């Protein structure tokens, strides 16, 4: 693990329960780690690991598509809420995620809340390489949720599009297929208010 990394999430693992312990130990080493395996029916979707000498992580709610946790530095100087999200491919299934995020908003209240996620749906028409000027019903439901829970993208750098079916072709520079922005980092008003004060929140997207 990177010596500066204190909390790490792995999404879309699809690891089966019988292999979970071995793979989790291989990934996180001597870190503490948890998963949402108990809420999954086709393999684990979210794994979270943390350096327990530096931070404590309390799981507040675990669901099939998300985990809400409270992260605190061991000296008590920093406390944040963090949601790790791996949304379902189905728009109908994602409706449960939108409900969960509304619940999380009420739990967090005025606390510092960041969301690190693969939403599996774009928020705006320009987040699709083919362009477009209309909102699909799935996009509209996503945007409605974002407005309801009052979150927005936080500062980021790197790639704009974060998903493609043929990553190896993109790396080779010979791919002209569909690209989408499905992964994003978001925060609530408290994150925005403290943009120039610690804890700082920023995202980097790369291939």
TrEMBL record:
InterPro entries: Endo/exonu/phosph_ase_sf (IPR036691). It comes from the Eukaryota. Keywords: Nucleotidyltransferase, RNA-directed DNA polymerase, Transferase. GO terms for molecular function: RNA-directed DNA polymerase activity. This is RNA-directed DNA polymerase, eukaryota, Reverse transcriptase zinc-binding domain protein.
